[in-house]
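can u do me a favor
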């Protein structure tokens, strides 16, 4: 009887690529003494005519302040991301990451012009809320989603009002809202009754 050899599979390409880029960006931040984060991997109130402003609107999710910041976010991404890629496809997860990065950057640009924002915590919260819809049935709102929204988003609102620290509660809230909206839209059935808007695999 032939035994199959164990091999390492590239099971979640989008999430694994994000983790790899985040690790590289954090390493560069240390090597450049913070210059790479400032110029490439953070979003801040720079002129709209500057092409880097729009690049940073997406690349800020790769930058992290230190290794502890990186490890915290990557742990959640690696825990939730593969499940989401399996359910929704890699393309859908990539879209969720991109739209979360863009909207978070725009909100920060408009409402918090003096704040430099970096990190994947907005994407993490989008993944948390999105994953709570894995057992969604049309005509129902999962209790797990309600509880996740109350505990995670509620906590961020309270901390945003009462705690003064360097954690961007705004990014957490925006990411969670985006994840909740996408979770509903990706699981609601079409009016033709032919299944969800997105298949599990492309």
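np, heres the sequence
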């Amino acid at each position: 009887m032939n035994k199959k050899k164990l091999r390492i599979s590239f099971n979640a390409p989008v999430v694994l690529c994000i983790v790899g880029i985040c690790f590289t960006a954090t390493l560069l931040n240390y090597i450049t003494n913070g210059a790479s984060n400032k110029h490439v991997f953070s979003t801040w109130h720079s002129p709209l005519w500057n092409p880097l402003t729009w690049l940073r609107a997406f690349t800020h999710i790769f930058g992290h302040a230190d290794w502890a910041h990186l490890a915290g976010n990557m742990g959640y991404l690696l825990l939730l991301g593969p499940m989401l890629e399996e359910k929704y496809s890699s393309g859908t997860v990539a879209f969720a990451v991109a739209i979360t990065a863009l909207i978070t950057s725009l909100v920060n640009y408009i409402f918090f012009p003096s704040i430099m924002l970096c990190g994947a915590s907005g994407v993490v919260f989008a993944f948390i809320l999105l994953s709570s819809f894995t057992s969604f049935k049309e005509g129902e709102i999962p209790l797990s989603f309600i509880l996740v929204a109350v505990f995670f988003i509620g906590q961020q609102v309270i901390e945003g009002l009462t705690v003064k620290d360097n954690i961007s509660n705004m990014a957490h809230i925006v990411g969670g809202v985006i994840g909740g909206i996408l979770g509903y839209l990706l699981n609601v059935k079409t009016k033709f009754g032919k299944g969800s808007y997105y298949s599990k695999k492309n």
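The CA atoms of residues 129 and 148 lie 7 Å apart. hope that helps!!
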